[in-house]
Amino acid sequence: MRYFQGDEESMIQNEQIHLLKNYQIPTTAGTLKEKYPVLYPSEYSDSETAEKYIEIILQGFDKWNSGISDYITWVDTGYTADAKSYSLKGIERTMDEYKTEMNTLQHKKK
User: Fold this and answer.
1) What's the total number of domains in the chain?
2) How many other C-beta atoms lie within 10 A of the C-beta of residue 50?
3) Which tens digits make up the pLDDT trace of 54-71?
């Protein structure tokens, strides 16, 4: 990235990368919004529909961070088995194929 940035931009980017690399997800028992704060909300974030979407996304983050088995169980609450998912490498898969792939990747990590 150095070729497209000046020193100031590079410094700002490095500071942000450092913050992200060292971020620790809070282990508090607070609300999901406290645990995963929305730092840059859109102008539509105050609508009732937006609140529902935000809650679903935050639940997904929480389940993902709890482990793949929790996440896959959570996925079943919102998607049918034949739902399409653009997962790894941009390949369209059914939800069942996606879950199988995620389980396979999780077991490879161990």
Assistant:
1) 1
2) 14
3) 888 888 888 888 888 888
